[in-house]
Inverse folding.
């Protein structure tokens, strides 16, 4: 049955009083509704042509595809035939919905938001790598009266699309991109999809599919905002001693970042947010000494959250000296090119699945061992910027800022741990409200809003300081646009200290006693009560730094990576995969 988000049963009898009352009640009842694939017949009747006035009351349509109960022999993964059956079911449901809505074209719009998701109960989160595809999505009818499309996925970070009492099946990247083209009136595009964790072979497939899609997708001229989020479901759980695959080789630059750079420029995006694996070519895809053509000329707001691990198989951060005094140094090199790369269980032959299960079991055991390690920093120890990686990234970011004449705010950051300690670089244009943390090096004179500002927060974890070359590039980012150098505000310690024995996890007792010890914590980003005690208010570029008190400001969200838990799985044996069959009864609403 159709569901009202907040049922108001007492209003229903009032609709019988008169036509005026009926219209008033319907305006409330049909403002926001939830339907499943089983409700499509009723939905079509309720909003039929003879009741077309009801369509104008609709502001949010939440469509949920309820897949049939899985009959998979294995409770933790699905075979190809089972995934194809899910694709077929979801495809029919989405096609029926779009065909119904296609009959509404006579009604002018846009006026409502459409959310599409495939929910699954929390108790049955057994298929994290079974991505659902909508087949032939490129031939779906366009829906010009829909003002915004939101696709709920397990990696979804958008507060207006995900329901926190539900989890959703992951959508295949090609589906996410294809559906976007069918909403020509939307001004904001949200692309969220999950990367398949440690399954490097599937990750490569996704990167190729994303690059090809970005080269083909044509956004509407109405689009002004793009959110692009592609993260690992296990991102925060990757042990820092692991070697990573090189997903860029044999290219010199990351082709995905370069393609995304051109895509954003081609569509004159004004507000761009990204979370995922980021490389310098996202900001500056040019070779050394190659002259850049003007790009991102319409950009006003830019925010990028980059993962600790880069696509070229290297880490942006390195171990602290404190860690290296207790543990052997981890490898900083990517996995060899001839390393065995797995597809998730259920992909390929029965033997492939058996190998994948053994590999997943080994990862699970390794994570358990890490969690039981008495030293909490034994597997999450990368907190000092790796100059060889961070400097090119920040340099390219700064060079890109100088290309954007309309830019008001640019922010690149990384959350070093789940407690919200961020490593942040932020640029704010003249006249744009500067929420400068009190622990930075800006004096009262430098608070003049007529000046452009660069705020650098190296967080509590490290005394690292950017090189003089990087600082000079940052000072010059505003010369082309505003004719003056930017003011640098930074929070860092002495570079020669390199953390010493004081690096490591934040310690509340040490924090509270720092004033009594009389150290120089004020200058070194240490743990004084005044500066570190209220991390929510002052700790780097937190939400409040880009938050209230600024009428012109935009939302700067703090993202949280999706839940993922490794699970030991019994070997499925050598049973051959069953043949795919397209037989079955036709689906009707």
């Amino acid at each position: 049955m159709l569901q009202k988000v907040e049922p108001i049963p007492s209003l229903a009898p009032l609709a019988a009083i008169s036509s005026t009352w009926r219209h008033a009640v319907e305006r409330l009842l049909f403002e926001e509704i939830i339907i499943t694939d089983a409700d499509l017949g009723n939905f079509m009747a309720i909003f039929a042509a003879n009741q077309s006035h009801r369509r104008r009351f609709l502001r949010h349509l939440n469509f949920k595809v309820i897949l049939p109960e899985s009959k998979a022999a294995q409770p933790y993964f699905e075979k190809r035939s089972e995934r194809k059956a899910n694709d077929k079911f979801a495809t029919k449901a989405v096609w029926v919905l779009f065909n119904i809505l296609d009959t509404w074209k006579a009604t002018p719009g846009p006026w409502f938001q459409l959310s599409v998701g495939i929910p699954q109960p929390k108790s049955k989160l057994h298929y994290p790598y079974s991505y659902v595809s909508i087949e032939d999505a490129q031939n779906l009818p366009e829906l010009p009266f829909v003002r915004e499309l939101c696709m709920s996925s397990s990696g979804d970070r958008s507060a207006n699309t995900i329901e926190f009492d539900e989890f959703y099946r992951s959508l295949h990247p090609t589906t996410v991109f294809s559906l976007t083209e069918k909403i020509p009136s939307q001004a904001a595009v949200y692309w969220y999809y999950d990367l398949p964790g440690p399954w490097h072979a599937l990750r490569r497939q996704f990167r190729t599919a994303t690059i090809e899609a970005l080269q083909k997708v044509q956004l509407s001229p109405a689009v002004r905002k793009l959110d692009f989020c592609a993260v690992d479901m296990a991102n925060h759980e990757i042990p820092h001693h692991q070697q990573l695959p090189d997903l860029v080789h044999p290219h010199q630059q990351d082709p995905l970042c370069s393609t995304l750079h051109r895509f954003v420029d081609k569509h004159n995006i004004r507000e761009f947010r990204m979370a995922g694996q980021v490389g310098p070519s996202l900001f500056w895809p040019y070779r050394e000494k190659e002259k850049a053509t003007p790009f991102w000329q319409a950009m006003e707001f830019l925010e990028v959250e980059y993962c600790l691990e880069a696509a070229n198989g290297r880490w942006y951060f390195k171990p602290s000296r404190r860690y290296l005094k207790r543990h052997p140094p981890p490898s900083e090199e990517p996995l060899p090119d001839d390393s065995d790369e797995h597809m998730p269980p259920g992909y390929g032959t029965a033997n492939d699945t058996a190998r994948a299960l053994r590999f997943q079991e080994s990862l699970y055991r390794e994570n358990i061992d890490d969690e039981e390690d008495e030293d909490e920093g034994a597997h999450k120890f990368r907190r000092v910027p790796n100059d060889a990686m961070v400097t090119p990234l920040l340099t390219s970011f700064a060079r890109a800022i100088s290309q954007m004449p309309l830019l008001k705010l640019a922010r690149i950051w990384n959350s070093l741990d789940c407690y919200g300690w961020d490593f942040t670089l932020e640029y704010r244009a003249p006249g744009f409200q500067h929420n400068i943390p009190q622990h930075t090096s800006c004096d009262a004179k430098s608070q003049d809003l007529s000046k452009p500002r660069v705020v650098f927060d190296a967080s509590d974890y490290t005394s690292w300081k950017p090189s003089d070359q990087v600082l000079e590039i940052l000072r010059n980012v505003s010369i082309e646009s505003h004719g003056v150098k930017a003011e640098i505000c930074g929070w860092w310690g002495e570079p020669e200290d390199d953390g010493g024995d004081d690096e490591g996890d934040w310690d509340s007792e040490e924090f509270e006693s720092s004033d009594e010890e009389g150290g120089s914590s004020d200058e070194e980003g240490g743990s004084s009560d005044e500066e570190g005690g209220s991390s929510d208010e002052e700790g780097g570029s937190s939400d409040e730094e880009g938050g209230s008190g600024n009428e012109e400001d935009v939302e700067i969200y703090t993202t949280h990576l999706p839940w993922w838990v490794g699970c030991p799985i019994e070997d499925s044996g050598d049973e051959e995969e069953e043949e795919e069959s397209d037989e079955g009864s036709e689906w009707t609403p």
Q: What stands out?
A: The mean pLDDT is 77.
